[in-house]
Specification:
CATH architecture of the largest domain: Sandwich
Low-confidence stretches: 255-265
Order of helices and strands: EEEEEEEEHEEEEEEHH
Strand order of the largest sheet: 1-2-14-4-9-10-11
Helix content: 10-25%
Distance between the termini: 45 Å
Number of helices: 3
Mean pLDDT: 92
Structural class: mainly beta
Number of domains: 2
CATH topology of the largest domain: Jelly Rolls
Length: 265
């Protein structure tokens, strides 16, 4: 799955993800991740966590979404394109605590594919979704590397999306209080369980089922156990996209933003 196609100046390779047999039920899609039914100990930092950030580079390399191999209908497409996700502590390989994905969301009574940040605070409970306003093919053009980030503040209920270091406008999909923030005492955290794994480029990293494959490449995927500040996301994008000689300039520029943020908040 590894190919010589780094997403940025400081990378030389990436991972190729794809659906291999679109008309055949099976388990041969190229995807990545890890899974344990008892939880993954190295993901303990995401146990009872107040915030999560997911970041990574994505390059669309084929037709998306893919044909649904779970039904006999030759025209049926999966309703999502899997990108990067952190599983819940009770996940069967699909349910997530934090997810960066392209998925159908209702807009004026019609389901439309949107780039989203989808989070679930309590295992087995409802999720909340923040969907980008811009069409997903505009945000992720074919054969172009794009740096995506999503933040999940489980204490306040805030979600955000970023593209190439800049925030995206969007909307919350689920009305009300799906995370139960108004009915439980603060500070609010996720379930006190270790995530059962991560999934990249589709669901079920334990290879028991195919769902929502991504015909794409990914590079430099990161999972953080806190909400990254907007300037940190911007700095991470600049760190790997500018020649090393520009680092000092970037640090000075970010210090200027630090002063601005201090004044503003």
């Amino acid at each position: 799955m590894r190919v010589k196609d780094g997403a940025h100046l400081r990378s030389a390779a990436s991972i190729q993800l794809q659906q291999n047999n679109p008309t055949t039920f099976g388990e041969d899609d190229w995807k990545a991740g890890i899974y344990s039914p008892t939880g993954v100990p190295s993901l303990h930092a995401f146990n009872a966590v107040r915030g999560v950030t997911i970041m990574g580079w994505v390059k669309m390399t084929g037709t998306n979404p893919s044909l649904n191999t779970e039904t006999p209908d030759p025209n049926d497409l999966f309703n999502a394109i899997g990108l990067m996700g952190l599983l819940t502590g009770d996940s069967e390989g699909h349910a997530v605590r934090a997810l960066l994905e392209i998925i159908n969301v209702p807009v004026n009574g019609v389901n439309e594919l949107h780039l989203v940040a989808l989070g679930r605070r309590i295992d087995g409970s409802a999720s909340q979704t923040f969907a980008a306003n811009d069409p997903w093919p505009t945000l992720l053009p074919q054969n172009e590397w794009v740096f995506l980030a999503a933040t999940f503040d489980f204490n306040t209920g805030a979600l955000a999306l970023y593209r190439n270091g800049e925030p995206l406008s969007g909307f919350l999909v689920t009305p009300g209080d799906p995370w139960g923030l108004t009915t439980s005492p603060a500070p609010h955290v996720t379930s006190a369980t270790d995530p059962r794994g991560i999934k990249i480029g589709g669901s079920f990293p334990q290879n028991t089922q195919e769902r929502n494959p991504c015909n794409c490449r990914m590079d430099s995927v990161m999972f953080l156990d806190r909400v990254a500040h907007p300037r940190e996301i911007r700095a991470q994008y600049r760190l790997v996209t500018r020649p090393s000689g520009d680092d000092d300039h970037d640090r000075d520029h970010d210090h200027d933003h630090d002063h601005d943020d201090h004044d503003r908040y």
